[in-house]
Amino acid sequence: MKNFLFLVAFGSIVWNCTKPVPPEPQKTLAILSVSALPSVNALALTANISSNGNSTITERGCYVSSVAGQHTESATCTKFIVVGNDIFTKTVDNLISNTNYYITAYAVNEVGTAYSLEIVAKTGLKPPVFSAISIADITKNSARLFGTFEVFAGSIPTSMGLEYRLSDNGVTPVGEVIKTQSVAFTGTTPGTYNFEFLFTDGAPGQIYLVKAYCIVPDSKIYGSEKFFTLNGYKYGMIIDGDIVVAVYNNGGDGKALHIQELKNTTVSSPYRPSWGWYAGYFAGTSTIAGSGPANTIAITSATPAQVYQGVIDPLGAAYLCRDLVNGSHSDYFLPSKGDYQEIMDHLKDIFKTQTYMNSIIKSNYYTSSENGTDYYYSVGLGYVEGDNHGFFLTTVKMGITDGFGNPACMAMRNLPHCD
Q1: Which of 106, 141, 269, 357 sits at 20 to 30 Å (Cα–Cα) from 317?
Q2: 151: which residues sit within 8 A by CB, 6+ positions away?
Q3: pLDDT digit string (tens) for 268-318?
Q4: Across-strand partners of 194?
Q5: Quick one: which of 253, 250, 255, 204 has its CA closest to 231?
Q6: In the structure, what pLDDT confidence band is assigned to residue 202 with cuts at 50, 70 and 90?
Q7: CB count in 10 Å sphere of residue 223
Q8: pTM given for the model
């Protein structure tokens, strides 16, 4: 009896120390979903594997088809294998615009291949496409602008036009749109269409940025853009290294000052030149505006017998201006007193800011105008931002420097007439 009880107790101890082994989780197909963000010619797909079915995912991807219900590669269905994790993405491009595509994500595990619910996504409408804008028949105040644009099914515009903005440099625009030209679009089918506009009431010498646009349902589509410059001149305009300082005839004529100071460069240390000779009234040079070219010819044509002590400086200011060659331009002269006085009332227009003013020498300047027998006129230009102009006139004895030292030598040229 004792032995029986012992064995039962022992057996009871052994039985109580043994724990059951839980069953392995049942393996199933994965569970996943897919979404799509369409654009004109592409679909950005995002798939989410919410359950791997208790089995490692060995392959994942998606099918994109132009026909519903396809999960097999074919002429109308493309399979994309994607490297990723539970959430994976794929951008499918080079698609046809304004077209329905059917998308199914898939995931492969030990059990088999699971598919998401099929979704449909439509690519966007292809907007009109503009050719480059062409510009012809440019005048001081107008230009003809023309080109072509192609429209596509589903995005037929209701109107198209051009927008204009100003520019100071032909690189970046300044300010807001200043002018808009538009026309109703009467086409009804996809295809290529022409456009043409006449830009009028422009400012001579002004640079503009023009940009084409179309109005399609719910949006404004911009196309090509182009900078163009009207003929003519405006104050402060830079032409081949010269700054426009005088404007006549509604911008059809003008004068430009070479913005590089002329110096005697025949020596190792260039220096400001003399006026041309020491002293000696020989015929007199004019002070009026426009007399600079004739004055320069008179000064550089003088003979030793006409000047004091027969001393002529062939590297004097008038000679340096006469001999200046700047690209294709070689018609420079030493400005007269009147030529400089024309600048006076337009300094703010010419130089615009102190930075512009720093592009030339802030000093007094030689003129080609004599004052009596022994003196020439020298002018000084100064600019303080916010002021319209600064101008002072000095009379300097020929060959004798004033408080500034020798004046600066700046060359001027007349601009060719333009319509």
Answers
A1: 357
A2: 128, 157, 187, 190, 191, 193, 214
A3: 778 888 776 554 445 568 889 999 999 999 888 887 776 666 667 788 889
A4: 148
A5: 204
A6: very high
A7: 19
A8: 0.68
